[in-house]
Design brief:
This protein is mainly alpha-helical. It is 79% helix and 4% strand. It is built from five helices and two strands.
């Protein structure tokens, strides 16, 4: 097995862990960290699969560099939105994450 496939498998594992963390956690900061972990895994997967014994393909590396810049900007925006949400509501989770689905269906209009 080539070392490039080890990078690709590690990227797939990081993406899977990030997806699991995003689904399981309700806290917005933990979800943001899980989302960033998932993105980093995708970058590592793309970088690992783009390399071969003939050389390195520069196009996926350029895409990964662009993706890193976009991810940093998106993370900064998400942090500002999470902070604003906390100051407005005092909660660290979204309302649809807090209420169980059964309590929404029990209320019937009169």
């Amino acid at each position: 097995m080539s070392e490039f496939y080890i990078y690709a498998l590690t990227g797939g594992l990081l993406s899977s862990l990030g997806l699991l963390g995003f689904v399981l956690h309700q806290h917005l900061l933990r979800r943001l960290i899980a989302f960033n972990l998932m993105g980093s895994g995708c970058f590592l997967l793309l970088t690992g699969l783009s390399q071969s014994k003939q050389g390195v393909d520069p196009l996926p590396q350029a895409l990964v560099l662009t993706g890193i810049v976009v991810a940093v900007a998106a993370t900064a925006l998400a942090l500002v939105l999470i902070r604003r949400w906390y100051h407005l509501t005092g909660q660290t989770a979204l309302p649809e994450d807090i209420q169980p689905l059964d309590s929404q269906h029990q209320k019937e209009p009169e």
